[in-house]
Specification:
The chain is mainly α. It is built from four helices and no strands.
Length: about 130
């Protein structure tokens, strides 16, 4: 082998090593870029969720908004209200009067601990004890 062949072989080996090192760096860079994009998307989703929660919290400062929410979304009633419950769904062509429940709905139910206490120690058994 001549000196030229040895120099050419060393140059080829150096080029192969450089290309392999460069390509691995390119792959690492692309992975990092993809991971950065995923993190940015996650941050954006969390920011949108945070904005949505903040707007909901801002709406809860208004008593009228709170009352509207609990009446319409949660179907709560105030003491003395007469709730109306539709019995069946009718077609949009027919307009029927809603049925009014005549019995007043108790606005105050006993607390959960009172219900449990009644189960554990009913009043009938407490009065029978000597």
């Amino acid at each position: 082998m001549t000196v030229r062949q040895i120099v050419a072989a060393i140059a080829v080996v150096a080029c192969v090593v450089f290309v392999m090192g460069y390509s691995s760096r390119v792959v690492v860079g692309l992975r990092a870029k993809n991971e950065l994009t995923q993190w940015q998307n996650g941050v954006q989703e969390i920011q949108e969720f945070s904005d949505e929660i903040q707007s909901t919290l801002d709406g809860m400062d208004d008593p009228a908004a709170v009352e509207s929410y609990v009446r319409n979304e949660k179907n709560w009633v105030k003491p003395g209200d007469q709730p109306v419950a539709p019995l069946q769904h009718s077609s949009p062509d027919k307009t029927e009067e809603p049925v009014v429940i005549e019995e007043p709905v108790e606005a105050e139910e006993p607390a959960n601990w009172q219900l449990w206490w009644q189960l554990v120690a009913p009043e009938d058994k407490a009065e029978e004890a000597p």
